[in-house]
Amino acid sequence: MKLAGRVSQVTPSITLAIAAKAKAMKGEGIDVCSFSAGEPDFDTPAHIKAAAQKALDEGKTKYGPAAGEPKLREAIARKLQNENGLAYKAENVIVTNGGKHSLFNLMLAAIEPGDEVIIPAPYWLSYPEMVTLAGGISVIIPTDATTGYKITPEQLRKSLTPKTKLFILNSPSNPTGMVYTPEEIKALAEVVVEADIFVVSDEIYEKILYDGATHLCIGSLGEEIFARTIVSNGFAKGYSMTGWRIGYLAGPIDVIKATSTIQSHSTSNVCTFAQYGAIAALESSQDCVEQMRQAFAKRRQVMLERLNAIPGLTCPKPDGAFYLFPDISKTGLKSLQFCDALLEEEQVAAIPGIAFGADDNIRLSYATDMATIEKGMDRLEKFVKSRI
């Protein structure tokens, strides 16, 4: 069969490929220290699993509304009102098969051939691919450590053209862990309103913050920016529910109706009984979230100190998520070559920065146990010293 041309335009996920290779090596009995996974290593909290089990026992195993269970949509709307200052109702929310799916639905619903989407780099690797599949054009805006890997209002303004449709904002960031301050968010909001474009705010890591950093949703800053904001979020990172595949999109009703139509012809509803676990996640104690956050904070400190003690590597301190994004340029290796050699020689799995639009960096996840971090950093130090 001759495949559609769009397939050749999309790059397979490097993160998933390296994670799969590391798992295969572990399956062969090789001692691999994996810093590649973009998921918490904790089990889903017991009360969330119990709620899903109860839903199973009650027979909640049938088809449901394509846009999500009404009770979950209502719970998400309340969460967005109470925690994020967004005046959404249930009709402004669609439940999707993970946060990634919410963004994919949005691109299909909003982007037409030739539309431009502004994406700051480093970026989560799936953003440009989604834009490509929708027929749009990704306008990549490079950032670096001097600005904390964050786009400035001046950069955003200069990148605007008559074809600009959407701006993607990700804070806390994957892969850098950086968090935009409230002042920085306000400055970007002013540009979005002036340009009369839309912004999608990817907030999947909003609950994982450190050192007093605060998360401010750009849509909460007034009626004009609220009307131009679409929020993508989910339960994977904050509640360690990666395999549950429950995300959501919130925004103007016409956008949500359009994504619901698309979803009705692709996946239909998200797993029915799993959605009841998500309701429990939102409506029960948030102590489990804080316990995981505190564990991540300790791991971050240990890995960051070990990393910055390695001659030739530098890494700014992240304010959120569970990633470090060190600069490896002094090793003389580009990111893919670096990560391939690191895995083969020292059995340490990391993600090449080229996947995120930054070939002089690698991404290290500290969503793993402390023993693995210590052993893996020993191996990384040995590897870097052999190259410098």
UniProtKB/TrEMBL annotation:
CDD domains for this protein: AAT_like
Keywords in alphabetical order: Aminotransferase, Pyridoxal phosphate, Transferase
Keyword Transferase annotated: yes
Q: Where is the Aminotransferase class I/classII large domain?
A: 31-380
Q: Which cofactor does it need?
A: pyridoxal 5'-phosphate
Could you tell me the superkingdom of the organism this chain comes from? Bacteria
In the Enzyme Commission scheme, what number(s) does this protein have? Answer: 2.6.1.-
Transferase in keyword set? yes
What are this entry's molecular-function GO terms? pyridoxal phosphate binding; transaminase activity
Annotated Pfam families = Aminotran_1_2
* PROSITE patterns reported in the protein's UniProt record: AA_TRANSFER_CLASS_1
Provide the GO biological process annotations: amino acid metabolic process
Q: Which Gene3D superfamilies match?
A: Aspartate Aminotransferase, domain 1, Type I PLP-dependent aspartate aminotransferase-like (Major domain)
| Top-level enzyme category | transferase
PANTHER family registered for this protein in UniProt: ASPARTATE AMINOTRANSFERASE
Concerning its family, UniProt says: Belongs to the class-I pyridoxal-phosphate-dependent aminotransferase family.
The protein in question is named Aminotransferase
The organism encoding this protein is Fischerella thermalis JSC-11
